[in-house]
Design goal:
It is built from twelve helices and twelve strands. By secondary structure, it is of the alpha/beta class. It has two domains: 126 residues, Rossmann fold (3-Layer(aba) Sandwich); 176 residues, Rossmann fold, CATH 3.40.50.720. Helix 1 runs parallel beside helix 12 and helix 8 packs parallel to helix 9. The longest helix is centred in the C-terminal third of the chain and has 21 residues. The chain starts with a strand and ends in a 16-residue tail after the last helix. It binds ligand A2R. Ligand A2R binds next to helix 7.
């Protein structure tokens, strides 16, 4: 029996590839020398897409695959997929929420600690012999008993908050709607920033959160304030961030994500008061395996009963109809 065609966008692990191969005739989009010829030959037979949060689904691809039924994306963020368009076409889109909450929250806390206690500079001080030459490393700022702000009190935001409570933090937050939780809600991002010492950004990317953290927000956070971004580069106005750090209007930043990844502005690389990571929020062996497994389970469930395990909210109504 011929297997349905799965279009694979981006790289997958061997473990994922084996699971895809068991059910699908897999074609790798970026291996196609002539993508138009592939479309002419197979476009009408493609039933599924496997992709990730980085590559998403390239513009116009949905329109060119008339029998596409399911898109399984590796990662929780799906701003690179037009989920409203997919839902309107009756295409089920799934992602991998929850399995990465702890890892991303750990990364956020790691950035907070590393930026506050100047881990990178202290390591250099120890390695370079500066300790022997110049003596003790300068004192740093404590993370204890801080006013901690969370922009985006969702699955990951709440996990960050739980960890911050371990440092005796007072938790403040902003999201579109107040939650039934015992933290302090602020109705605007600027108000939140003005109330806290450190602001964790953990909303989705996309149009609705574009540059939500702007010049005004950074001024409100202030000269002693710290910005930690583990969401998407697009949520923070990077040009304004650089200017605020350079002027001393914002104290410091810990960044896992950037507007033009993998490009990082030289101005940020040159600053001592920022810690930079190459988008590794969920990047542990264990968590990436769990994300890969859920990506596969979504496709496998689809072949069994036409539903997925974890649909994106835009497609929830399609799941099982
Ligand atoms: O929808 P709400 O009221 O629960 O708020 C969500 C909030 N959020 C926003 N807050 C302010 N302004 C906006 N325009 C806005 N849009 C969304 O972000 C919610 O509190 C939070 C997202 O939570 P979850 O949907 O549970 O996402 P999760 O799993 O925590 O992941 C967040 C993002 C991913 O989309 C990736 O971009 C990144 O973390 O890894």
């Amino acid at each position: 029996m011929t297997k349905p065609i799965l279009l694979q966008i981006g790289n997958v692990t061997e473990r994922m590839k084996n699971r895809f191969d068991a059910l699908f005739d897999v074609h790798v989009w970026f291996d196609q020398q002539d993508q138009d010829a592939f479309m002419d030959a197979h476009g009408a037979d493609v039933v599924g897409i496997a992709t990730d949060g980085h590559w998403g689904v390239p513009d116009n691809l949905l329109a060119r695959l008339p029998n596409l039924k399911v898109v399984s994306s590796y990662g929780v963020g799906y701003d690179a997929i037009d989920a409203d368009d997919a839902a309107a076409r009756g295409i089920l889109v799934s992602h991998t929420p929850n399995v990465l909450n702890d890892e991303v929250a750990d990364t956020a806390i790691m950035l907070w600690l590393a930026t506050s206690r100047r881990l990178v500079q202290a390591d250099k001080w120890a390695r370079s012999g500066q300790w022997e030459r110049d003596g003790a490393f300068p004192l740093t700022r404590s993370v204890q008993k801080r006013q901690v702000g969370i922009l985006g009190m969702g699955r990951i935001g709440e996990t960050i908050a739980k960890r911050a409570l371990g440092f005796d933090a007072t938790i403040h937050y902003h999201s579109r709607t107040p939650k039934d939780i015992d933290f302090i809600y602020h109705s605007t991002v600027k108000e939140l920033a003005a109330a806290v010492d450190v602001l964790f950004v953990i909303t989705p990317g996309g149009a609705s959160t574009y540059h939500l953290v702007n010049d005004e927000v950074m001024n409100a956070l202030g000269a002693e304030g710290m910005l930690i971004n583990v969401a998407r580069g697009s949520v923070v106005d990077e040009t304004a961030l650089i200017a605020a750090l350079q002027d001393g209007r914002l104290g410091s930043a810990g960044l896992d994500v950037f507007e033009q990844e993998p490009k990082i502005p030289d101005a940020l690389k040159a600053m001592e008061n920022v810690v930079l990571l190459p988008h590794v929020g969920s990047a542990s062996v264990e968590t990436r395996q769990a994300m890969g497994d859920l990506t596969c389970e979504n496709l496998e469930r689809y072949t069994q009963d036409g539903t997925v395990v974890t649909p994106v909210p835009e497609c929830a109504d399609l799941n099982g109809t």
